[in-house]
Specification:
The protein has about 70 residues and is mainly β. The chain contains one helix and six strands, in the order ββββββα. Helix content is about 10%, strand content about 35%. The chain has a four-stranded antiparallel β-sheet with strand order 1-2-3-4, with no helix packed on it. Strands 5-6 form a two-stranded antiparallel sheet.
């Protein structure tokens, strides 16, 4: 079981899903690699395991393309 919360990106236009797993914290499809805060001029930087990209399709479009859903 995982818990999640939706927040807005720095630009304020893209929702990001923060998740709590047993093995650590995640954001969208990436894991937060280093839990230590790295201070920056306008906030805190966290190292993640993958590049975060905005979605290119809606969930409905993904399911339709899969072919296993109607």
């Amino acid at each position: 079981m995982n818990l999640f919360q939706v927040v807005r990106s720095a630009e304020g236009n893209a929702p990001l899903r923060l998740q709590v797993y047993r093995r650590g914290l995640g954001v969208e499809t990436a894991m937060i690699e280093d839990q230590r805060d790295r201070k920056a001029l306008n906030g805190v930087v966290h190292v993640v395991s993958a590049v975060l990209r905005p979605p290119d399709r809606t969930l409905r479009e993904h399911l339709q393309q899969d072919g296993n859903f109607t």
